[in-house]
Amino acid sequence: MRTPSPALKYLICIVGTLAVGSLSGLATASSIETWYATLEKPSFNPPNWIFGPVWTLLYVLMGIAAGLVWNARHDQGQVRSALRLYIIQLVLNATWSLVFFSLRSPAGALVNIVLLLIAIVLCIRAFRVVQPRAAYLLYPYLAWVSFATVLNASVAVLN
């Protein structure tokens, strides 16, 4: 089987990451105006409209980071290991929406997001070994998910 070109690798990573994000958005959409609207939220809860643009930007940065790693001229075992961690954190990311919005479980989602934070940190560490610039592209994601963890914990406590 022929190895994809560098441009195709970037495209696969960006589109794949955005696709996972879109699926998460579908799980979220039906609950925003109904169940989520009834929850008590902390004073620092951002307006609903901010989440879409922020997540879109983060998913693009994540996809670029994964593309940098996949295209790196580095030990292929470390590249595969880093990309496996990337996929694990992406699955945890998507799972959070299902647990929080579809299962309507802020407490369950809190457990999920803590696991997601750990996976992001491990992914950043693995990316740093393979391609340091890729690790830096994940820092905004880590910051947003850290904020989301505090937000999730607050919603869980308030409800």
Describe the fold and architecture.
With 159 residues, the protein is mainly α. The chain has a single domain (6-37, 46-158), classed as Up-down Bundle (Ferritin), CATH 1.20.1260. The chain contains seven helices and no strands. The longest helix has 27 residues, at 6-32.
Annotation keywords:
single chain, mainly alpha, Ferritin, 0% strand
Which helices and strands appear, and what pairs or packs with what?
Elements: H1 6-32, H2 35-38, H3 51-71, H4 76-102, H5 106-130, H6 132-137, H7 139-158
Helix pairs in contact: 1-3, 1-4, 4-5, 5-7
Radius of gyration from CA coordinates: 16 Å
Number of strands: 0
SSE pattern, N- to C-terminal: HHHHHHH
Summed up, the helix count is 7
Mean pLDDT score: 96
- Shape type: elongated
Structural class: mainly alpha
Biggest sheet details: none
Percent of residues in helices: over 70%
CATH superfamily: TspO/MBR protein
- Under CATH at level 1, the class stands as Mainly Alpha
Architecture (CATH level 2) name: Up-down Bundle
Low-confidence parts lasting 5 or more residues at pLDDT below 50?
Answer: none
Tally of domains: 1
Strand content: under 5%
- Span of the ends, CA to CA: 52 Å
Q: Would you give the CATH topology?
A: Ferritin
Summarize the model shown.
This protein has 159 residues and is an all-alpha fold.
